[in-house]
Amino acid sequence: MTFDRILFLESMTNSELKHKLNSNSPVIAPSMLKCDFGNLHREIELLEAAGAHVLHWDVMDGHFVPNLSYGAMLIERVRSLTSLAFDAHLMISHPEKYIDDYIKAGCDSITIHIEAVANPSEILKHLNQSGVLPGLAISPQTPLKAVEPYLDQCGMVLVMSVEPGFGGQSFIESSIQKIKQLKSMIPADTILSVDGGIALDTIAETAGAGANYFVVGSAIFDQADYSTAVSELAAKAGSQTASST
Ligand code: DX5
Ligand code: ZN
User: Fold this and answer.
1) Do 229 and 218 form a contact (C-beta atoms < 8 A)?
2) Which member of 87, 195, 201, 222 is catalytic?
3) Residue 167 CB less than 6 A away from ligand 1
4) What are the residues whose beta carbon lies below 5 Å from ligand 2 (ion)?
């Protein structure tokens, strides 16, 4: 673990992380699912240089979603390579069995799926007590009333705007209405994240609806220049946020 990383961990409380992410709004969070794993260290350096504030780690178990990605062991190894915040998106069944592995791996925020647990309260509470920003994700087919009872326990809520499991899918248009409605249900400082199909032609509309944190895979990693991609996405999101407030 680097000295910077130790400082980062020691100095940043849960609410400070939330504040940091909110004050950097709009946050562009590259989805590492789409990165070149043959050059992972280089990819992280390029994302740092591009001005990303956080790396989004999509964890898939081949059970909750029909795809398999990577787990806590990989995240833990990569943790020391950067002081960027780590945001884990757990698309896994029984997250309660594995959550401590991701806390130990050094994730700053951890999001579980409402569809994966009968009652997320204990997990959200445990994350909070562990100094990790607790997040709850909701898949396209799930109504908002499923997450409503737990919103006060969340530092972040994540609206899936594609079916979870794969990068490179098309944005589901009905997500806009869901984001708008969710925005009216959450405290002002709760981060509202949108994940899936976010690109230059979809990001502004999601920002206008109330999202302030944008998970982006293809629209960064399929581009030759990550800096241009990140800044153009942030500019599009920022202009819409500014004009809508
Ligand atoms: C999908 C993941 C997303 C995905 C985003 O299950 O949660 O983070 O990798 O990739 P794009 O931006 O290509 O939709
Ligand atoms: Zn994700």
Assistant:
1) no
2) 195
3) yes
4) 58, 89, 195
pLDDT in tens, 47-81: 999 999 999 999 999 999 999 999 999 999 999 99
Protein residue closest via CA to atom 8 of ligand 1: 31
d(CA 150, CA 136): 8
Three-class SS string for the chain?
A: CCHHHHHHHHHCCHHHHHHHHHHCCCEEEEEHHHCCHHHHHHHHHHHHHCCCCEEEEEEEECCCCCCECCCHHHHHHHHCCCCCEEEEEEECCCHHHHHHHHHHCCCCEEEEEHHHCCCCHHHHHHHHHCCCEEEEEECCCCCHHHCHHHHHHCCEEEEECCCCCCCCCCCCCCHHHHHHHHHCCCCCCCEEEEECCCCCCCHHHHHHHCCCEEEECHHHHCCCCHHHHHHHHHHHHHHHHHHHC
Find the range with the poorest average confidence among 19-23, 88-92, 186-190: 19-23
Contact of 208 with 194, CB cutoff 8 Å: no
pTM, full prediction: 0.93
> Which residues, including other chains, have CB under 8 Å from residue 7's CB and lie 6 or more apart?
83
Structure confidence at residue 55 (pLDDT): 98
pLDDT band, residue 244 (cuts 50/70/90)? very low
Atom of ligand 1 nearest to the CA of 217: 12
Indicate which ligand has the atom closest to the C-alpha of 165. 1
Count of residues in the chain: 245
pLDDT-based confidence at residue 17 (cuts at 50, 70, 90): confident
